[in-house]
Sequence to fold (319 residues):
Amino acid sequence: MSSFSSEVKNELARVVGEQSCCHIAELASLMRMGGTMLIGGNSNLGITFTTENAAVARKVLSLIKNGFNLKTEVVVTRGRRLKKNNSYLLKVVPSPVVTSLLSALGIMRDDNINVGRDTGILRKSCCRRAYLRGAFLGGGSVNKPEGDYHLELVTGNQDFAKTLVRLLKNSGLPVGMTERKHDYIVYLKDGDAISSLLRIVGAHNALLAFENVRVVKEMRNQVNRLVNCETANLQKTVNAAVRQVENIRRIQETIGLDKLPQNLKDTAKLRLEYPDATLNELVDAAGGIVGKSGMNHRLRKLEEIACGLLHGGKDESQN
Fold:
């Protein structure tokens, strides 16, 4: 997970839902992402939740404790490999009350498991925001804003992934979904869309950091485009000037400049005198007796004459 993803999750873990219904929606989404059910004695149900982010673990524990009087256990597994994150396992001990929790979350309906169609807890906009926040906390990541724009939500539940896609589409975001091995990836690749989602879920500090970097990137890209355009124009001007000088040299060496009409002769000598000048600079050097369009016409005429001489055509200087 990138450090920026961790920063976003740490911030979102501190966001408190507006109402108790938002807490339910956020916890339901978190459980869809990282929770599993287990069966204990007397067929009582329990829950486990796994995450590598301590702030997310505290958030899940808080949401469970605030709404339900359940016995919970926390196990921290230290990463053995270099730079491997710790893993936090939250366990809700099996009891009859867990079924009430699962029913409130919409994961259980009567005695059946609801695989991922959480329409009942998503009627209010505040709950939809909380649900998306829980999805990011449980299985989201986002690239550092300095790199390519990419945010994704990863889940093994196809129905849940489709619910997330529908929510994001309803928010006007250009969302995509793909499969990767046994997971479903819901993703955003547009900077504006990622900014919008960060705002929707309440990651305001992360949004500010993201936008600051975006502004710098856009300015840098704009400068690069302008420099590239200027470079291309400069190269085009230089190439044209070199070609025009070559054409005039060819005329000079074959028929001589004196054979040209006076206006073309004057232009030819002007170009030889100022071989590196732009078209505007040539007009200024001519003292304003001819405009830019007229200067360009004369240079094209000289090119036609030179091409005619190169291919053995007749002298077009008098035409």
The chain has eleven helices and ten strands.
